[in-house]
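WP5 quarterly update. Target: Replication termination factor 2. Source organism: Maylandia zebra. Length: 192 aa.
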Amino acid sequence: MGCDGGTIPKRHELVKGPKKIEKVDKNAELAAKWKYCALSQEKLRRPIVSCELEGELYNKDAIIEYLLDKSAERPNAEAVAHIRGIKDIKELNLTDNPEWEGERRNTKGDRYEDIHCGMFICPVVGLEMNGKHRFCYLQTCGCVFSDRALKEVKTEICHKVGNIHLFIFPRLFSLSRLSTLTAIFEVTESRW
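Structure tokens (predicted):
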């Protein structure tokens, strides 16, 4: 039982301090933003869309379900409150990452799973879309490029589709809320 004369309790044994707050791993949180739909929290699958305002990634079917029935309660409905119609989103033209195994990999649990390996890459530079690098997409064709690729290759032609695009602000949008629109202004101003 203790405290019968044989033991002397210390303060930390008698007084309980405040509980420590759990910290979220920032790398895992970034990886989740690039692999899961911001509305339904399901894995991203084609067709993938993004909005101009937030730059989050969504499954197109989740957005269509939301637009058809806005009265249904969803846990992340505030994340898409700004989307009023199909015209507010753009279907993205993404390049698959050949190193990403996804559902094809061995699911026995005896392999190392790299959470930083992105499902998609930049077609110009080869950077993975895993939250470590900024990515932008063209509003006209939906092609996705890394910010580094847009800074290195100065041209008005889309590298993936081959259409002529002027890289001006209304046509170039940033993916992910972590990337600010000031980076887009820097890219577009350096082209003039």
